[in-house]
Amino acid sequence: MSLLELDNITKSFGAIHALSKVSLTIQPGEAVGLMGDNGAGKSTLMKIIAGNFMPSSGEIRIENKPVAFHKPIDARNAGIEIVYQDLALCDNLTAGANVFLGRELKRKFGPISMLDYPAMYKRAGELFAELKSETRPRDLVRQMSGGQRQAVAIARTRLSDPKLVLMDEPTAAISVRQVAEVLALIKRLKETGHAVVLVSHRMPDVFDVCDRVAVLRRGTKVADKPIKETSPEEVTGLIIGAIEAA
Ligand SMILES: Nc1ncnc2c1ncn2[C@@H]1O[C@H](COP(=O)(O)OP(=O)(O)OP(=O)(O)O)[C@@H](O)[C@H]1O
Ligand SMILES: [Mg+2]
């Protein structure tokens, strides 16, 4: 049974056709690379899966059941977590508070319910350690490097035990060492049965961790192939349009 099926998803923003009849299937535990030039529709597709946008038409099915995500919490409740391209962190909060944003731990003192910061910082610290990140839970996100911010955004997806993690350009703005860490994390997610969709412009990342690659060009899916049956040259040709479809 497929984890996720997108069936003829179309999305328009006024006169802009961001996606035209895109179908995509994700199996449990599979890592799929989603590639395409700027404006090809990658982030729009991720946001539709994550419940940020409703598609203009088309159907989404999770484990064969049609679903309609009206808001991000609906997708989260269905086992889907996302790391946004802009990371969507709150600069004025600590790393730990960002990890728990919207899912704060509380403690009861008699009739009073209070945020349990010690517990949140402790759990956030464990998640950063798992990610081999030196991010400290009590540091403000405003003062952090790109890689540390990435670790905060990824740690946030690990709070629940999602079936599918969507990552929109997780390695675009970070150091070589941190890229290796993020790729290692994706492999670990896969080993533990999680599916991953990796949006990336970086061919080596996709060929390193993905089982399959799908290519969008101007809102249309032009290829969807096992990674073993394609090459960086072919994928580049598909992205820029030198190869029509494969
Ligand atoms: N909220 C929005 N309102 C209007 N148009 C939008 C919106 N979001 C995306 N678009 C348009 O939809 C198209 C696809 O954009 P999208 O962000 O999905 O591309 P992308 O493949 O993620 O590109 P990049 O590699 O630059 O991140 C673009 O033409 C973009 O301008
Ligand atoms: Mg994008």
Automatic annotation (TrEMBL):
What is this protein called in UniProt? Monosaccharide ABC transporter ATP-binding protein (CUT2 family)
Named from the GO MF annotations, one term is: ATP binding
InterPro entries to which the protein is assigned, alphabetical: AAA+_ATPase, ABC_carbohydrate_import_ATPase, ABC_transporter-like_ATP-bd, P-loop_NTPase
Pfam families, A to Z: ABC_tran
User: What UniProt keywords are attached to this protein's entry?
Assistant: ATP-binding, Nucleotide-binding
Q: Where is the ABC transporter domain?
A: 4-243
